C-alpha cells in the first residue's frame, strides 16, 4: 500500500518501514518515498514541520514531536496547543507563499488524488503524502509511516501498542453484554450517509460490542430513510455537527417514529473530531461508543 526507503549514515540504527519497504545505504542521510512515489532525502530528522490535515497533526503530537510543528490547517483543534500555531492551509488550499517563507523541513499531508501536494513539491517545498486511511490497519500504518519519516520509529511502535492494548481492554469489558444494534449517521437528511464494513468506524463499533445495522454495506455509503426504518436500530449515533440540532432533525423525519431507538429516546450526539478522524484518538472514540451503549460494563 505504501513504500518508503530508508538509509542511514548519521544514525546508529536502521529505520524500519512497513509493508514492502526496503533499506539502502546512503552517505547523505535517509530517503523516504511517499504514497505518490515522490522521494525526499534528509541529512537529519526534520526539525520544523507543517501538517495540513488534523489527523496527521494529532499523530505527530502523539509521537512526542509536537514542538516541531510550525504550521497547521484551519480545521486543527487538537491538542489544545495547535490553537497557538499558525494556520497555513485550508481544505485543498495551502498558503504556498507563506509556507515558502516559513521554509519547513517537512510538510505532511494526504494523497487525495488532487494536485495539492504536487503544487507544493513544484515550488521546492518538501511535501510528503500518506495514503488516506480507511481501516484501522491503515491508521496504524500511517502512524508508523509518520514515525519513520520523523526518525522516531520506536515511538510509532509504542503508540500503536498502547492503542491496541486499549482496544483489548474495551473488548474485554463488553465481552459478556447482550449486543445492541446501532445506526451511525455521518451526513444528515436529505443526503443521508452512514458507514459500513471496511471503515475504521465500523471496526470501532464492533470492538465496542455493538452491531452495525449497515454491516452489509461497504465503506461510507448513501442510504435511504426507508433502509434505516426497515433495519430498526436500538441505538442511533450521529457525528453530524453542522446543522442546528442533529438529534431533533432525526426525531422529526417522516416515518422514523417507528424506529425503536427513537421510541426509546436512544439517540446520542458523538464528537466528530474524535469519531471521524483516522488518528490516535480512535481508541478514545471506541471507549465512548462502548460506555454510552453499556455504562454498566464500565462501573
Automatic annotation (TrEMBL):
Signal peptide region: 1-21
Record's keyword annotation contains Transit peptide: no
Domain called Fe/B12 periplasmic-binding: residue spans: 48-297
Protein name, as recorded: ABC transporter substrate-binding protein
Xref: NCBIfam families: TroA_like
Species name: Shouchella lehensis
Gene3D superfamilies: Nitrogenase molybdenum iron protein domain
PANTHER family: MOLYBDATE-BINDING PROTEIN MOLA, VITAMIN B12-BINDING PROTEIN
Domain of life of the native organism: Bacteria
Family the UniProt entry places it in: Belongs to the bacterial solute-binding protein 8 family.
The keyword Mitochondrion is assigned to this record: no
Keywords: Signal
Amino acid at each position: 500500500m505504501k513504500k518508503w526507503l530508508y538509509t542511514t549514515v548519521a544514525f546508529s540504527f536502521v529505520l524500519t518501514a512497513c509493508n514492502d519497504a526496503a533499506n539502502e545505504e546512503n552517505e547523505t542521510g535517509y530517503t523516504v518515498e511517499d504514497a505518490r512515489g515522490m522521494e525526499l532525502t534528509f541529512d537529519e530528522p526534520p526539525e520544523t514541520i507543517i501538517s495540513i490535515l488534523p489527523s496527521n497533526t494529532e499523530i505527530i503530537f502523539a509521537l512526542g514531536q509536537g514542538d516541531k510543528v510550525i504550521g497547521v490547517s484551519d480545521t486543527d483543534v487538537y491538542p489544545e496547543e495547535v490553537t497557538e500555531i499558525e494556520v497555513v492551509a485550508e481544505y485543498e488550499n495551502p498558503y504556498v507563499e507563506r509556507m515558502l517563507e516559513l521554509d519547513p523541513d517537512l510538510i505532511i499531508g494526504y494523497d487525495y488524488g488532487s494536485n495539492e501536494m504536487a503544487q507544493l513539491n513544484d515550488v521546492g517545498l518538501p511535501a510528503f503524502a500518506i495514503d488516506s486511511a480507511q481501516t484501522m490497519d491503515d491508521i496504524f500504518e500511517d502512524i508508523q509511516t509518520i514515525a519513520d519519516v520523523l526518525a522516531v520509529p520506536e515511538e510509532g511502535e509504542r503508540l500503536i501498542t498502547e492503542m491496541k492494548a486499549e482496544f483489548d481492554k474495551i473488548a474485554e469489558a463488553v465481552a459478556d453484554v447482550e449486543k445492541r444494534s446501532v445506526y451511525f449517521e455521518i451526513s444528515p437528511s436529505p443526503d443521508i450517509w452512514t458507514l459500513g464494513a471496511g471503515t475504521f468506524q465500523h471496526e470501532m463499533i464492533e470492538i465496542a460490542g455493538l452491531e452495525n445495522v449497515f454491516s452489509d454495506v461497504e465503506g461510507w455509503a448513501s442510504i435511504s430513510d426507508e433502509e434505516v426504518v426497515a433495519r430498526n436500530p436500538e441505538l442511533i449515533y450521529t457525528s453530524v455537527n453542522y446543522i442546528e440540532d442533529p438529534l431533533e432533525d432525526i426525531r422529526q423525519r417522516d416515518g422514523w417514529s417507528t424506529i425503536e431507538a427513537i421510541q426509546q429516546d436512544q439517540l446520542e450526539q458523538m464528537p466528530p473530531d474524535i469519531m471521524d478522524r483516522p488518528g490516535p484518538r480512535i481508541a478514545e472514540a471506541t471507549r465512548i461508543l462502548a460506555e454510552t451503549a453499556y455504562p454498566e460494563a464500565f462501573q
